[in-house]
Every structure is written in structure tokens, then in C-alpha cells.
From TrEMBL:
Signal peptide: none annotated. InterPro entries: Endo/exonu/phosph_ase_sf, Endo/exonuclease/phosphatase, RT_dom. PANTHER family: REVERSE TRANSCRIPTASES (PTHR19446). Residues 1-22 are annotated as: Disordered. Keywords: Nucleotidyltransferase, RNA-directed DNA polymerase, Transferase. Residues 698-987 form the Reverse transcriptase domain. It comes from the Eukaryota. It comes from Rhizophagus clarus. This is RNA-directed DNA polymerase from mobile element jockey-like. One of its GO terms (molecular function) is RNA-directed DNA polymerase activity. Residues 8-22 have a biased composition (Polar residues).
């Protein structure tokens, strides 16, 4: 057999048998747990809140049994023939359903058949070792080159149940096996691969990558397709380029593009090592992986690695990664009621579990508080016994403390202290209508259909004869289904107090035709009258119910009450369908494919309308010398800022500071990835707060954030316009970790106090600081308008209103760093702030679950507490530049007001007070003021230089120009910015403009 791709050809009989078997539901028999390791594993899973876990119960033989599938992969390091019995025992003892084998070292396909049955002898289920208790199926790919690739050869072992669902088998040069398993609701592709360890074989590795990518893409084109890929990749996605070249990591990028998730990384904070280096016995390299599609992840209970005991099993320097999958994933036709009652039933991972805080009372919160301390102490003892020591904080200790906090709160909630909201099954119709109403509506339809048979016109048309001349044969054919009609009518009597359909004739004749029709008409009238009675009773009950509900909403849900009074429906979107525009042809298509929607949504929120090329072309500023010369002095740190200005930001966080901040947190807010809400934090034990203070101070001292704070969820909400299934008509709401927001709120409050009590920021750019509001910029603008129109002193006034496009999303973090250094922010705080906005990963919430995580490559989070302050600091150099630039007096709008020194002096002795205004800002709302249109154009051209280096984009279509020059009101004017010209129309005398929620005529 050559080294090209091969596909096993089954006989017609075998194919027929497989086809018949593939159409049946998978039948799982609970298997015994044969080792303490699996039992301990299940116990550990039980302690992993908040998800449900695989059940195990004692059967009649007093053995624990499982109801899950276990799939894994192991590099056996050759010696396949001598290790086969040990591998079989390992498979059986550890309750594997599928086990991939790599590096089996077989390269002679003529000696080793592709498919081989393996008898198993399991004393747990059969004490007679002379007879096999069952058979496993071993599939091998031994097509490797025996001279150039002697370590190749891979295999897959399946249990007897899954073998019945085995379909096509594809082999590739002893390096890749693809098997298809078919179920009624799923086509599952399992790939086991062994990628070359020698990086010199770049061509062969890239060819194998291409083969795997094509196999996944081809399979995912099938309906209800799912994929699991596993094996020894001989590459670490997070490894250094010295050990794993960037080109070798391409396989992981390809898997991510196909929305496959690394199961180990999903269930742990990081990848787990799976291979022991020659230098020591501790595993250090994570090169064995399992990737699955999102649907399988949602039904996966846990993923971990097995350590192979060389004394009891076989020798290898690898560990075996594995996943545990809910078996109900493969049993779609099982009664839903039975599934709901199972302890393993879980509609979706981390999505449908919802805690009902409205049912919490004082007694339950006391229980929650006490148990939170118990779980905290337990986790500290288990993971970090010296948590309160004076050890210098490190990234490792900070991650451990965050893990302790997260799991302690999750365990407390999972400990039945917070009630769960019942799972609401989706339905395609409203089922709150009373049963009698629904039944009567259905029966009225039945009666109408029955009466239609008594239409003389229909009868004559069907038989092609007048009523009196229809021959007996045609008459009997027409009424051949009368018994069925009669039976349906007879069943309606159950809904009536006085049965009507009791005297229906056995058959229809011309003699009883009229009487039978009248009886049915009478029944129709009776049912309609009865329906009116039930409907009226239902409507009156509904009116009373909604009146009570609206009255209750005055206290419990004011938003719902106001929406009801104003007849306003909350605007939401449903991402179950999406219109996609082809960028080349501009053709639009509607898709309902979840994976296509997830890919398109991720791409939109990652790029936000920009191309990858434009994002990558965004300049990176390492120091002031990288900035254009005219702005370098602006970005230099001001010598008037004392070195001790920010000392109060760096002092340790106190318990009082934490508790006061926590008490100000709002309720009923969405949680982040961990599911921890503000309600949870508020009701923790006081000793738990001590640990939080310790945790926050470690972050402040080290300048390092925990890894878990880099992940967030994103929920799209519609813009004011109708979203129309177009993702561009939405804006993102970022759901960050509540503890992250708590810590950042403390730091932000400290910075606010310093910046509010000093003149570090420009006076016309102080939005949101303590004592500042929209009043100040509106006051300056109003005074300018009033003085420009003052009788006897009238002067021309031009106001330009700018709209910045996606201001927060376009912030250049390298320039933000220089902006922070400009106002003297300490390096440690500077580093902490920048960590909030780098190495971030988001997942979009969709009706089918979360999209695969994508890396955020630009901007800052709008939902972050410190973001408004960061924008002010980032935007402040523009105001400093305009305020200090040598702008001619003719280009600045200037007001001169006389101030009398003495009321008895002549006006010539009055002291002139001069007031100048060019730009006024409040967050991303910028208002430009000039004495002429040409002066306004020159100011905007100066600002454009800053916008280029700051990556700020102006919405030209949303420019609004106001002027008190009556001759130019409601007239087109030319806006000229650095040689670019476009026209806009000034607002007319009767038009209005909205500035900071105030209307200006």
C-alpha cells in the first residue's frame, strides 16, 4: 500500500449493516467504575461549581456506574505489540469510550490490518477470564515511511457500543486517522494525529496541517456536524519561538478559525503540561491537546490529564489528555421529561444556570455569608496555605488568590444557598392560554372542516353531478371517511356540558343529509358560545393580573412600569439570523448558520469597521521622539507637577475603603465570565473582605492583574435605528468581572480626587471629575452665544459640533501610555491601567451560546469604570495644544467686557476683561468656536494633525455648523481641512442642535 491517502472499503454487506446501525439511537449501558482515580475525579468534578456533573450510582453488584463518555489520547512511545495488553487494561480500567494512540511505531500495512478486534477480560463484569467479556475495535494507520518516518503510526480504540456507529475511515501517511461516527442528530468526525517532532520536516508538517484543515472544512459542511481533534501536536500554542516556531503554531490558528476550543484550557486557567522533558521527571511541555466544537464543549463535564503509572500500566513520558462528555448528547430522542430529571441534565454549559436573587431573604443571606467563609478557608488551605504571609506577591500567587475567591463564591452559591431559577424550556407558541380555550379553538376548526363536507356545491363539484342525480357509488366514495369525521365530532362531546353529537347517523344518505348538517351547525354555535364564555373569563383574569402586576412594578420594576404606561417595548436583538454583505460584490445574503454568525460577529467586534491592514498599520509610540515634532512639547511631563502628587494612589487599600465601595455598588447587574454578581460580593463574610483587601494590595504592590480578568463577555444591543439583522446596527455592552470593576473603581476614585483638586488637566476638558458636570461647558458656550448677540456689541460667531466615531474603540494604547506619563501617573499605576486594555479576549453572547473567544486588538472597554477618565487623559493633549498654540487673535473668538473700577469714573477708565474660547469638550463631544468660517477651518485643520496621530476618526456626515450670520443661515458652506473639502448646510433660524442634552436654537 502506497503512502497516499487511503480509505477503507467495506463490503456491501458490512456497509448495509453499518448503515442500518447508524440510524439507531446510541444505547449506553452504565459501566462500572473500576478504579479509585476515576471515582476521585468524579468527586472533584462534583466540587466544581456551578455546573452539574456526571452522575454515578451503586448498582445491584454494589459497584459504582457511570453515565458519561470519556475520550482521550496518549503517546505510547512505540513498543505497541508489547504494550497492547497494558493499553487495553488502561482503556477498560479508566472507562474510556475512545482512546487515540500516537507513535505506535508500526509502518508495515501489509502485516497489520487497518481494523482489528481486541478481546477484553474485565473481572468487574465477568469473573470467567477464559471468555472475553466484550470486544474493542482498534483502527490503525501504519502507512508511514519505514525508512524516513519509522516513529509514525497511530491508532484509535473504540468500545463495542460506539463501533456500531462507525462510518468512513480515512488514513493519511501514518500521521492522521479520521473516523466518522453517525447518530440520528449528529455526524461526529474524530481526528487523531501525530505531528512530526522534527522541525526540519517543515514541508511534511505543513502538508499534514493542510490535510487536517481540509478534512475539518469538508466535514463541517454537513448538517449537524461536530468535530473532535486530538493527539500529539508536538507544539505548544503558548510556547516560545525557540521551541515552537511561529509557522508550527499555524495549526492552532486554523483550529481557532474553525471555532474549535482547547478543552484543557477551557476548564483550567492555563494549558496543563503533558510531556516530561529528559532533564527531569516533572511534566513541563503542553504538546498533547484535544480540541472540540462549541456544541460538544457545552455538553462536556470536565477535561484533564491522566498520569500513566509505569509500574502498573506502561512506560511513556507523556500524559493522556481526556474529556468527559454527557452521554445524553448522543440520545436526542430520549424523553425530555426523563432528561430533565437526570442529575446530569444540563441544557448548556455556563449559560442556562441562573440564580434567583429575588427569592433570597435575610435568613438565606446569613447562611450564604457563613458558608462563604467556610469555603474560603477550605480553598486557602488546599491551594495557598500561606496566603496571608508577607511573601512578595507574584503573578502565580495573584492567580491563585483569584482562583480561591472565584471558586469559594461559586461553591457557596452552588451549596444550595442561592435558589436556582427553573430552566425555561423554549416554545414556539404561547402556552399561557387556558387549556379549555385552546381545546375549543381546535375543535371549532374540526367542526368547520366537517361542515365543509356538507356543502352541496362541493359535493356536486366532486361527483360531477347535481345533488339529486349523484349515483350511489360516487355518493359512497364521497362519504367513505364519514366514520372518521363522526369519531372526531363525538370526541367534542367531552368539552360540552350537554352532549350534542350523540345521535349522528351511521352513514350519510339524502334522507338524513339536512338533519345531520343542522346538528353539526348547532354544535358549532354551542362551541362558539362556550368559547366566548371562557375567553371572557380569561380576559377578565388577565386584566386583574396585569393591574396587580403593574402596581407591584412601582416598587419592584419601575422600568417595566414606565414602559407599560408609555406603551414602549424594550428594543432587543436576536442573533439567530444575520445579513452578511460580501465586501467584493456588495451582495447581501441571510444566514442562520450558527458558526457563520459567530465568525461574522467576532470579526465585526474585533475590527469595528476597520480592515486588519489598517489596524496593523496603526503606529506604535515607544517614546516622545516617535511623535510628530509639533506635539512633543505637549507630551512632555509638566515640571509643575510635584513628584509626590500621586503618593495617595499607591498607599495600601484599606478594609474601610473596600467596604464603602462595595456598599455603593448597584444590584441587578449582569456578571462577568465567573458569574459573580454584586449581590454575592455584598453578602460575603467580613473575614472574606480581609482576604479581598489582601488580594487587592498584592495587585497594587506587584502591578500585576490576574489572568482571569482578561476575559469578558460581549452582548450586542441595538442602536436607535432598527437593527434589521445587520450587525453594524448594534453596539457592544462589555460584561467585565465584578471584582475587576471593584478594584478599578477604587483606583479610579483615588485618581479622581487628585485630578479634581489640581489643574493638571486643561480647564476646558474636565468631564466627570469631582465638582464638574455638563453645566460648566454649557455655561461657557451659552455666555459666548449671548455676548456675541449682545445689542451694540454683536459679532460674528461660528460653532462647529463634532461627532467622534467609536472614540473608545479607536484609542491607541501606546499613545495612551505617553498621555499617562505626561500628567505624571506613576509607572506602576500606568502599567496596571495598560494591562486592563491589552491581551484581552471577548466572547459574544448569542442564542446558541458563546462564540469562540477572539482577541481584542484595539481600543479600551466602554464598560470599564476607568475608561471615561482614560479618554479625558488621552484627549487632553489636543486641548493643551490648542490652548497654548500661537493662534492669531483673528482666529480666536474673543469677548471683551468692561469692568468698572469706580462708578463715578468715566467709561474710558473701565478695566477691559478679555475672555477667549476656541474649543470646549465633554468626553467625546467636542464643540469648536470661532469668529469666522475661515478661522473655524483653520482650527479644525490644527485638530486634524492630532486626530491622525491619535487614531481618531470624525463622522463628517454628522458635522453640525451653527452661525449667527443671518445671511448664511440654512445655506451650504464649505468645510476645508488640510486640503480636503466637503459641503454641509448650516442650521436655519428655526432649527435646533442638541449639545450635551441641551437644545440650542
Amino acid at each position: 500500500m502506497d503512502n497516499k491517502n487511503t480509505e477503507e472499503n467495506f463490503s456491501a454487506q458490512q456497509r448495509t449493516q453499518d448503515t442500518n446501525l447508524n440510524l439507531t439511537n446510541i444505547d449506553f449501558n452504565s459501566r462500572p467504575i473500576n478504579n479509585n482515580e476515576d471515582l476521585l475525579l468524579l468527586n472533584n468534578i462534583n466540587n466544581l461549581p456551578p455546573d452539574h456533573y456526571p452522575s454515578y450510582s451503586i448498582n445491584t453488584n454494589n459497584q459504582y456506574t457511570t453515565d458519561y463518555l470519556k475520550i482521550g489520547s496518549i503517546n505510547i512511545q512505540r513498543g505497541f505489540r508489547t504494550k497492547l495488553n497494558s493499553i487495553t487494561d488502561f482503556f477498560t480500567t479508566h472507562n474510556f469510550s475512545i482512546l487515540g494512540l500516537t507513535e505506535i511505531g508500526l509502518t508495515q500495512p501489509q502485516l497489520f490490518p487497518t481494523r482489528q478486534p481486541i478481546p477484553i477480560y474485565n473481572p468487574a463484569s465477568n469473573n470467567d477470564i477464559s471468555h472475553p467479556s466484550g470486544h474493542l475495535t482498534l483502527i490503525k494507520d501504519t502507512n508511514g515511511d519505514p525508512y524516513n518516518d519509522p516513529s509514525s503510526g497511530i491508532g484509535i480504540i473504540l468500545n463495542e457500543t460506539l463501533t456500531k456507529h462507525l462510518g468512513k475511515i480515512r488514513l493519511h501517511k501514518g500521521r492522521c486517522i479520521e473516523i466518522e461516527l453517525h447518530f440520528k442528530n449528529m455526524h461526529l468526525l474524530i481526528i487523531n494525529t501525530y505531528i512530526h517532532a522534527n522541525n526540519q520536516k517543515k514541508k511534511e508538517i505543513q502538508e499534514l496541517y493542510e490535510h487536517i484543515t481540509q478534512a475539518i472544512a469538508k466535514h463541517k459542511a454537513l448538517p449537524h456536524s461536530q468535530v473532535i481533534i486530538m493527539g500529539d501536536f508536538n507544539a505548544n500554542p503558548k510556547g516560545s519561538t525557540a521551541h515552537t516556531p511561529s509557522w508550527k503554531k499555524e495549526i492552532f490558528h486554523n483550529l481557532k478559525r474553525h471555532h474549535l476550543t482547547n478543552t484543557i484550557k477551557f476548564f483550567h486557567d492555563s494549558l496543563l503540561p503533558t510531556r516530561v522533558n529528559k532533564e527531569g521527571s516533572i511534566p513541563t511541555s503542553a504538546i498533547d491537546h484535544i480540541y472540540t466544537t462549541q456544541h460538544i464543549i457545552e455538553h462536556t463535564f470536565f477535561s484533564d490529564v491522566h498520569t500513566i503509572n509505569p509500574n502498573l500500566e506502561f512506560t511513556t513520558d507523556h500524559k493522556a489528555p481526556f474529556i468527559i462528555i454527557d452521554r445524553n448528547l448522543f440520545s436526542p430522542n430520549k424523553s425530555l421529561k426523563i432528561q430533565y430529571d437526570l442529575s446530569t441534565y444540563r441544557p448548556s454549559q455556563r449559560k442556562k444556570i441562573k440564580y434567583n436573587y429575588n427569592n433570597m431573604d435575610e435568613e438565606k443571606w446569613v447562611t450564604f455569608t457563613n458558608r462563604s467563609l467556610l469555603h474560603l478557608n477550605k480553598n486557602i488551605q488546599q491551594w495557598l496555605p500561606d496566603a496571608y504571609s508577607q511573601t512578595c506577591p507574584s503573578k502565580y500567587r495573584i492567580n491563585k488568590k483569584w482562583k480561591i475567591i472565584k471558586y469559594s463564591i461559586e461553591a457557596t452559591k452552588h451549596d444550595k444557598t442561592v435558589p436556582l431559577e427553573p430552566y425555561k424550556q423554549r416554545s414556539h407558541y404561547k402556552n399561557d392560554t387556558p387549556l379549555p380555550v385552546r381545546q375549543l379553538k381546535n375543535k371549532i376548526i374540526v367542526i368547520h372542516e366537517s361542515l365543509s363536507r356538507f356543502s352541496k356545491r362541493k359535493l356536486e363539484h366532486t361527483t360531477q353531478a347535481s345533488f339529486d342525480l349523484i349515483n350511489p357509488r360516487n355518493w359512497d366514495d364521497y362519504w367513505s371517511n364519514w366514520q372518521s369525521i363522526k369519531w372526531n365530532l363525538h370526541n367534542i362531546n367531552k368539552l360540552l356540558e350537554m352532549p350534542i353529537f350523540t345521535q349522528l347517523p351511521r352513514s350519510i344518505s339524502r334522507q338524513n343529509f339536512r338533519q345531520t348538517k343542522q346538528t353539526i351547525q348547532k354544535g358549532l354555535y354551542t362551541c362558539k358560545e362556550l368559547l366566548k364564555e371562557h375567553q371572557l373569563k380569561y380576559d377578565l383574569n388577565n386584566i386583574d393580573k396585569f393591574i396587580i402586576q403593574r402596581n407591584n412594578n412601582i416598587i419592584s420594576n419601575q422600568r417595566k412600569m414606565i414602559n407599560s404606561i408609555m406603551d414602549r417595548k424594550p428594543r432587543t436583538i436576536q442573533l439567530d439570523r444575520l445579513i452578511i454583505t460580501n465586501p467584493d460584490t456588495q451582495e447581501q445574503s441571510l444566514t442562520r448558520c450558527p458558526e457563520t454568525i459567530a465568525s461574522h460577529v467576532n470579526e465585526h467586534f474585533q475590527t469595528l469597521g476597520q480592515s486588519i491592514q489598517d489596524i496593523e498599520a496603526t503606529p506604535r509610540y515607544r517614546n516622545i521622539d516617535d511623535i510628530p515634532p509639533q506635539f512633543r512639547d505637549t507630551y512632555r511631563r509638566s515640571p509643575r507637577i510635584p513628584p509626590t502628587t500621586y503618593d495617595s494612589v499607591l498607599v495600601p487599600i484599606t478594609l474601610e475603603e473596600v467596604t464603602s465601595t462595595i456598599s455603593s455598588l448597584p444590584n441587578h447587574k449582569a456578571s462577568g465570565v465567573s458569574g459573580i454578581t454584586y449581590e454575592d460580593i455584598k453578602h460575603l463574610h467580613i473575614n472574606f473582605f480581609d482576604f479581598i483587601v489582601n488580594f487587592f494590595n498584592d495587585i497594587l504592590t506587584s502591578g500585576t492583574l490576574p489572568n482571569g480578568w482578561n476575559n469578558a463577555h460581549l452582548y450586542p444591543i441595538p442602536k436607535p435605528t432598527d437593527w434589521g439583522n445587520d450587525i453594524t446596527n448594534t453596539r457592544p455592552i462589555i460584561l467585565l468581572e465584578t471584582f475587576r470593576k471593584l478594584f478599578v473603581k477604587i483606583i479610579t476614585s483615588r485618581l479622581h480626587k487628585i485630578l479634581s483638586n489640581s489643574s493638571i488637566l486643561q480647564p476646558n476638558n474636565r468631564a466627570g471629575l469631582s465638582g464638574e458636570s455638563t453645566f460648566q461647558p454649557l455655561q461657557h458656550l451659552t455666555h459666548s452665544i449671548e455676548m456675541a448677540n449682545l445689542k451694540g456689541r454683536k459679532q460674528e460667531l461660528w460653532i462647529g459640533l463634532q461627532d467622534l466615531s467609536k472614540a473608545y474603540d479607536r484609542i491607541n494604547t501606546s499613545l495612551l501610555k505617553l498621555s499617562l506619563q505626561r500628567i505624571g501617573i506613576p509607572n506602576k499605576i500606568n502599567h496596571l491601567i495598560l494591562q486592563l486594555f491589552t491581551n484581552r479576549y471577548n466572547q459574544v453572547i448569542t442564542p446558541t451560546g458563546y462564540t469562540p473567544s477572539y482577541k481584542v486588538i484595539q481600543g479600551i472597554d466602554q464598560g470599564e469604570v476607568i475608561s471615561p477618565l482614560m479618554w479625558i487623559i488621552y484627549y487632553d493633549p489636543l486641548f493643551a495644544y490648542i490652548n497654548t498654540a500661537p493662534i492669531s487673535k483673528e482666529d480666536r473668538f474673543t469677548i471683551i467686557v468692561p469692568k468698572k473700577k469706580n462708578i463715578w469714573d468715566s467709561p474710558q477708565n473701565d478695566l477691559p476683561i478679555e475672555y477667549t474660547l476656541s474649543v470646549q469638550g465633554y468626553l467625546d463631544d467636542t464643540t469648536w468656536v470661532a469668529p469666522s468660517l475661515s478661522a473655524l477651518n483653520r482650527l479644525l485643520s490644527m485638530a486634524e494633525d492630532f486626530y491622525k496621530i491619535a487614531n481618531i476618526k470624525i463622522n463628517k456626515d454628522k458635522y453640525r455648523i451653527l452661525t449667527n450670520n443671518a445671511s448664511l443661515a440654512n445655506k451650504p458652506v464649505a468645510i476645508q481641512i488640510q486640503g480636503e473639502t466637503w459641503h454641509t448646510t448650516t442650521l436655519g433660524r428655526n432649527d435646533c442642535a442638541k449639545i450635551l442634552a441641551s437644545i440650542y436654537p
